[in-house]
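Sample intake sheet
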Amino acid sequence: MVGISGFTGLLFLPLVPLAPLPPPDLWPWLLASFSIHLIYQLALTKALEMGALTFIYPIARGMGPTLVAIFSYLFLEGEMSLIEVGAVIILAIGIFISTSTGKATTGGTARENGFFFALLTGAMIASYTIVDGLAVRVAPEPLTYIIWSSLAFAPIFLTYSVLHHGPQILKAAGKGWRTSMTAGIIAQGGYAIALYAYSIGSLGEVAAIRETSILFALLIGAWWLKEPISRRRWLAVPLIAFGAILLKLV
């Protein structure tokens, strides 16, 4: 996480001339986003330390679009219809089905293997989606928020990490710089694309389509990390796809 959110966040530095400084009315949004993202990073790290990717990821990512869709329907007029909320829920059900029940990993219960932190991660995903999605619309231009939200968060996360773990955390993160740089570019670039999508589309719809990434997580967990994938999880794949397709048809 230090490599992904700290070191690679600084890669936005050369892009600063492309976007103006955030105006004062954007600062409260940035502060709220930083606080939520910090809790998200810590919760996700703890969850992945305790449980299997194919257990943690579906819970966290399934909660996000569901909560965003409900929030959009209730509080953002014209963002989502009731039918679209239903499509998101179908997609989310498929995501939840893709996880296991009872034991997250061999030798422990779901609670012992990160279930609480997976739920907290999902709540933070919904929170930062709403805050960042609305903030990028407030910004003078989307690029301003995309660049400054990522760049300014990097020193905040690095400072927290050093205060909590000591300066040796930077040295430890530096040893795996190739992996963290690759993951960081993917993570930072992917979220930058999501932020731009939030500026031109419905929060609930974009958040839901974004979470079809669970299909890739299942494949990565099965083929790369060699985690067991049950038939029940594979049956969730067409349900997730159906929910995503339905969302675009209604």
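Comment: The two ends are 38 Å apart (CA to CA). The chain has one domain: 2-14+24-249.
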